[in-house]
Every structure is written in structure tokens, then in C-alpha cells.
Amino acid sequence: QSALTQPASVSGSPGQSISISCTGTSSDVGGYNYVSWYQQHPDKAPKLIIYAVINRPSGVSNRFSGSKSGNTASLTISGLLAEDEADYYCSSYTSFTTRVFGTGTKVTVL
Amino acid sequence: QVHVVQSGAEVKKPGASVKVSCQASGYTFTDYNIHWVRQAPGQGLEWVGWIAPNSGATCFAQSFQGRVTMTRDTSITTVYMELSGLTSDDTGIYYCMPWFGERADSWGQGTLVTVSS
Fold first, then answer.
1. A-B Cβ pairs (cutoff 8 Å, strict)
2. Are the Cβ atoms of B45 and A38 closer than 8 angstroms?
């Protein structure tokens, strides 16, 4: 199972919106509505920010939103804040009942 | 609320095995699979596998098959991950977390495993 493909880095200015893509195959991202997104600050455990493509856990800002089209899922961060600077990972259920993570994206707030 | 506590850091020599524990509480332990994820230093997240606490059934990533074992003790709501044949490539932080359907929002604090001669 190959890792899902994410851009290595994305940047934006405070207040802007950015999007991070997560590309897989029909055996993972495209085949199921089970894509999650995690935010990880340095030396911290990952934090779930989106699950089942579009759902936000309680307490997560509505500035984070998820979507999916075909084999590609996307995370959008609107109204970018300095605190959003972190690494972001997608993950997906797969046809083998396993899970697979994305390669990770470093978000920089300019 | 859900609480997940892992065992402490380990230092192992190449070729040895390591066993990491993960105690989960605050929900019905046998109702949800527990997954393990690894993060090598400066690297991304890598899914290791899951165990179903009610039956003991397991599923592993292909890259770990043959070297990883997962077990559970329902009396103390704890699961264990044992990795054998350690190499320096196995150095990293190992996280466990219950997966509530497709929602994994309660991660353990992580266990650092260092493999060094």
C-alpha cells in the first residue's frame, strides 16, 4: 500500500485561505468516504481535525473544512492564523481494511 | 472522557524485540478497534495495524507483517504491540488510539523506541 500523495509544503498569509490535496486511488480515497485529516505541531501528537471527509470533531474550528472528488481529497483552511502553522496529514480506509496515511504537508504562515 | 496511556520509552539493541502497552479507558473497551501508528524522527505517519479487543483479531500493514504481534488483556483494558527483529529503521514514536468508526481523536502520548547498538 503506497502512501497517499500530498504536496510537501503550502504557504499563505494571515487571513488567506489555503488548500491541501491528498491523492490516492479507487482502492482508498476514491472508494470510501473515510478520509481523515490530522494537524501536528512540533513535538506533539497528531490531532484529528476532519473525519469521514467532511466532519469536524467537537472543538475544532470551522475554519477547517474537507471535501473529496474522485481519488483526491482536500483540506481547506480559511482565515489562516499563525497557530495553523503545522504539519498536516491525510489518511484513508483501504479496501484491505487497513489504513494509509499521506506523505504530509508543512503549512507555513507567511 | 476517553483516556489513552502508553508505556514509557524503550532503548533496544538491533535484533531485539520491544513490547509497548496501551491502556484505554472512558468507553467500552471491546467495542472499538485500537490502531498503532509509527513516526520515525523527522518523518511522516505510518500506519502499523489494528487489533479488535473483543475477538483479538488483527490486521497489519504489509511492511510490518511477520514482525509485529498485537495482543490484548480485556481485564485491564490494555493492548500490546510487540515488534521483533528491530533495526535502526524501527526507531521512532509509536502511538496507539481507539478508532471510533472512522474517528480517531484520542491518541496516546506516544512511546519513543530507540534502536541502537
1. 58
2. yes
Tell if the CB–CB gap between B95 and A34 is shorter than 8 Å. no
Stretch among A50-54, A86-90, A96-100, B36-40 having the lowest mean pLDDT: A96-100
- Contact between residue A13 and residue A109 where contact means Cβ atoms under 8 Å apart: yes
Residues 20-39 of B with CB under 8 A from A: 35, 37
E-assigned strand segments in chain A: 9-12, 18-23, 35-40, 47-50, 64-69, 72-77, 86-93, 99-101, 105-109
Q: Which residues contact A105 (CB under 8 A, 6 or more apart)?
A: A6, A7, A8, A9, A10, A20, A87, A88, A89
CB-based contact (8 Å) between B82 and chain A? no
- Alpha carbon of A80: minimum distance to chain B alpha carbons (Å): 23
The pLDDT tens digits of the residues spanning B13-27 come to 999 999 999 999 999
Q: Is B32 exposed, middle or buried (0-12, 13-18, 19+ CB in 10 A)?
A: buried
d(CA B56, CA B96): 16
Cα A101 from Cα A105, distance rounded (Å): 12
